[in-house]
Every structure is written in C-alpha cells, then in structure tokens.
Amino acid sequence: MFPFLTVLIALPAIGAAVLWFLPASARTRVREIALGITGAELLIALIMLWQFDTADAGAHQFAELHAWIPQIGASWALGINGIGLLLVLLAVILTPLALVAGWREDTDVKRRTQYLALILLSLSFMVGIFAARDVFLFYVLFEAMLIPVYFLIGAFGGEQRRYAAVKFLLYSLAGGLIMLVAVIALYFMGPGGSQAYLTDNLTGIDYGVVPERLMFLAFFLAFAIKAPMVPLHTWLPTVAETARVGTTALLVSVLDKVGTFGMLTLCLVLFPEASRWAAPVIIVFAVVSVIYGALLAIGQEDMLRMVAFTSVSHFGIIVLGIFAFQQTSIEGAAFYMFNHGLATAALFLLVGFLIARTGSASIHAYGGLQKVAPVLAGTFLVVGMAVLALPGLSPFISEIMVLIGAYPVAPAAVIVSAVSVVLAALYILIAYQRVFTGPTPDEHGGTREITLRERIAVWPLMALMLVLGFLPALAIDVLRDPSADIVSIVSTQEAGE
Fold first, then answer.
1. I need a labelling partner for 272 at 20 to 30 A (CA). Which of 72, 186, 207, 378 fits?
2. Are 72 and 196 in contact (CB under 8 A)?
3. Bond before 231 cis per omega within 30 degrees
4. How many angstroms separate the CA atoms of 326 and 347, rounded?
5. Three-state SS letters, 212-266
C-alpha cells in the first residue's frame, strides 16, 4: 500500500529544508515553490480521500507500523479514521490558501523564504499529529510543533511579537511537560514491550482510579491550553493581534484543533472512567468559555482580538459536545472542528485584507466600505454568517448537532450555551455595521475592491461551507463510526463500574 501518511508528513518537511538551504540566487521563486509543494500535498490528500473506505470509517486506514525506539516501546505508527481524515484535509486545504492570501507580504526575499519554510514545517507536524497512533509519537510531534510556531509568531509580526511568542511558548510548554509525566506513567502502567505506546494497546486497561484520573488531568490540561479553554486562553488574543494574519489563521483554525482532537481521541479513549468523573466540571468550564468568549468578542475594538474571542466561544461548544458523551454531540463536535476551521480562517484572512488596505485593525477606523468595495463587504457578510452559524452554512449543522445531542445529559448547559447564538449575531453584525455601513471616511474613499488573488484565498472556503451546509452527510458519514466507537468505550466503562 502506498504510504500516504508518511508522504504527507515528509513532503512539506523536505520542502521546508529545500527552501531553507536554497542559494540566494534561486530564492526569487520561493513563493511558487512553496505553493507547488502545498498543492501537491493537497492533491495527494484528495487521492487518499478518494481511496478512504467510508463504510469502515471507524478503523484506522492507510495504517503504517514500524519500529522506532523499541527500547521504550515507541513506534512510527500512523493511521486515520474519519475524524483524523477531516482534520488532515483541513490542514492541507487551508495552508495553500493562507499562502495565496499572504502572497505580497514580504519584500525581503530572505525573510520570505524563512517564513514559508516554517509554514511548511508546521504543516508537516499538523498532519503527523492527526495521524499518529502511538502516544509517544503524538507527544513528540505535539512538542516539536512549538518550534516553528514560536518563530512564526516571534520573528514575523507586530511590535509585541516577542512577548506574544514567549507567552505562547510558556503556556504550551507548561502543559506539555505536565503531559510528559503522564506519558512516562503510561509506559510503566501499560502493557510494556516494543509497542507499549500504541493507542490500541493502551485502550481498555484498568490503571486504577487515582492513577487514571491523574493521567487524565495531565493530558487534559495540555489539551485545554491548546484548545484554548477559559481560564487558559489568554495567550490566544495576544498572539492573534500580534502575529501575521496567515499565521494566526492556521494556528486557530488547525493547530488549536490538536487540543480538542486530543480530548476526543486520547482522553476519552485511554481514560474513560476519569473522563466521566471530570465531565461535570469540564462542561461548566466549557459553558463559561462559550459565554465569556462571546461577551468579550462583542466588546473588542481590535478585529483580530474579536475573532480570537469568537474562537474561545466556539471551542467551548466543541468541548461541551465531546464531554456530553452522546453519539450526536460527538459527531457534531468533530464536524464543528472542521467547520470552525473553515469559517474562522476565512474571517481572519478577510480581516487581514482590510488591514492591508488601511494599516489598522481597529473597528472604529472604518466605516462605509460597502459603498466603495461591495464585493468585499458581501464576502465578509457571508463569512460572518458562517461564524454565527446561519442555517444553510455548515457551521450551523455542527452547532445544532452539539446542542441537540448534549441536551439529554446536560440541559442546563445547553440552554445557557444557546445564548451564544444571540451573542454571535451581535459581535458579527456590530462589526459589519461599523466597518461596512454608514458614511465613508475620506481616507477610505479609494479603498480597492477585493482582488482576484484574495477571492481565490477565501471563496473556496465559502463554497465548501455552502456545500456541506446542504449536504452535511458528505462529512458526517465518515464521523459516525469513529464517534460510535468512542461512545462505546466510554459507555462500556460506565456499565462496568
């Protein structure tokens, strides 16, 4: 079998190395090279999608298993079920579009080359994390991913970029080091042997009540920082207003999904009893994240911070769906991870286009742009409607699945979280009103319309949300079996208590 996943991991990593060591005379075409590599990555992923067996979406397909560090039980073990498939697709779809959106950002060829190389390396780690079936491999990629992201934030961004990069790194390292303790504990408490860290070998083991709960908390803390959940979210708005918009779009839309992906595929599967034990408290924090993030989004003057806080709110809904332990809520949460990535990336890119025109992210610096750039205004409105989960666009399907699915077990949490639907309308429509309606300031009278390049970067995401809004089964069909397997593991544990 063709090693799709290894190729998808290796191709952007090799591409990053090629860009990094290109002679200066050959660096004038680095954008085209990087776009070609991400385009090839997308093509390979689409071929993999074509060969994916939807009828067996709960199994890890395209599996690869090779000895890596047998002395500690670590393997090069890859494979994706339906959930991993959607997130790999999300990564390979968004990366080339982010490159197109930021096509003219760097005039310095050396900096452009470094930036693109770091983006490609990040893509390699993203795919690796979503495909890893070995806990030690997952942890190594989870931590290694911090390196390119740290430099993407700290070397390319605004005035506070170093502060934002250090804050991101400290939060992430703290969670990662705590998780490392649990990873080591798994080796001693698991089956041992040369494949001690395979997730299949670690599932269904009775670790004892206290050890399981402690290991769960260690994993969950690392994932809650990455997600991000209140009160561990404060690094995100800082990074959002400081880093390049393309970096932030990939970070929030793809990299942060590592947190909810880890909760879904590691916390629930490896520690089902502890997951049920912690669920009531986690659901409370999820609801706090939903409302807190939405309220703060309404009060933001900086558009980048506004989008960041909308994500805090949406991640809360995803976590609510995960820890409700219901088939529909988990399917909805997994689908929401994909849909949130599409909608939030598009909104970040559109904000970046506005900043490129005026140099300001302040909502109050704008006004009346609908008169001079109606297509840009219409595009912003459609994407904004997706963010607030308007029926007909795919985020609506996933959000309603979470709320309906979670209601039987957490009705109060669902009722409170449903308030976010109204709050979402407020933060999107208020932003649209202030930026695009009313009188046009004289300095913005010549604001250019959305360009062909910018349409290429955003319109495919709109089209995908529209298609999945009316044909959600295209995605839900690959989520049904893996979601059922997760529910079965947690329910079996509950029945055995």
1. 72
2. yes
3. yes
4. 30
5. HHHHHHHHHHHHHHHCCCCCCCCHHHHHHHHECHHHHHHHHHHHCHHHHHHHHHH
Structure tokens at 191: 């089956």
**Torsion 248-250-254-258 (CA) sign:** negative
Confidence of residue 83 (pLDDT cuts 50, 70, 90): very high
Q: Note the pLDDT tens digit of each residue in 391-431.
A: 999 999 999 999 999 999 999 999 999 998 889 889 999 99
Q: Write the CB contacts of 231 (distance below 8 Å, at least 6 apart in sequence).
A: none
Q: Which amino acid is located at 245 in the chain?
A: V
Domain map (residue ranges) of the chain: 4-496
- Can you tell me whether residue 301 is helix, strand or coil? coil
| Cis omega (within 30 of 0) for bond into 460 | no
Q: Which of 167, 95, 81, 82 is nearest to 126 (CA)?
A: 95
| pLDDT tens for each residue of 253-296 | 998 899 999 999 999 999 999 999 999 999 999 999 999 999 99
pLDDT digits (tens, 9 = 90+) for 183-229: 999 999 888 788 889 999 998 888 899 999 999 999 999 999 998 89
Helices (H), 23-145: 30-51, 82-101, 109-131, 135-144
Residue 88's contacts (CB-CB under 8 Å, 6 or more residues apart) are: 8, 45, 80, 127, 130, 131
CA dihedral 26, 31, 36, 39 (to 10 degrees): 160
- Sequence letter at residue 269: V
Q: Taking the model in full, what pTM does it have?
A: 0.94
Inter-residue contact 93 to 345 (CB < 8 Å)? no
- With beta carbons less than 8 A apart as the criterion, state whether 440 and 372 touch: yes
Residue 430's identity, in one-letter code, is I
Q: Which contacts qualify for 69-74: CB closer than 8 Å, 24 or more apart? A: 69/136, 70/194, 72/136, 72/187, 72/196, 72/197, 73/136, 73/187, 73/190, 73/192, 73/193, 73/194, 73/195, 73/196, 73/197, 74/134, 74/136, 74/137, 74/196, 74/197
Burial class of 179 by CB neighbour count within 10 A (0 to 12, 13 to 18, 19+) = buried
Amino acid sitting at position 253: S
Give Cα 253 distance to the centre of its chain: 4
Buried b (16+ CB within 10 A) or exposed e, 393-421: bbbbbbbbbbbebbbebbeebbebbeebe
Q: What is the pLDDT of residue 494?
A: 54
The reported pLDDT for the residue numbered 134 is 95
Contact predicate 318/285, CB 8 Å: no
Q: pLDDT tens for residues 123-179?
A: 999 999 999 999 999 999 999 999 999 999 988 877 888 998 999 999 999 999 999
d(CA 148, CA 106): 18
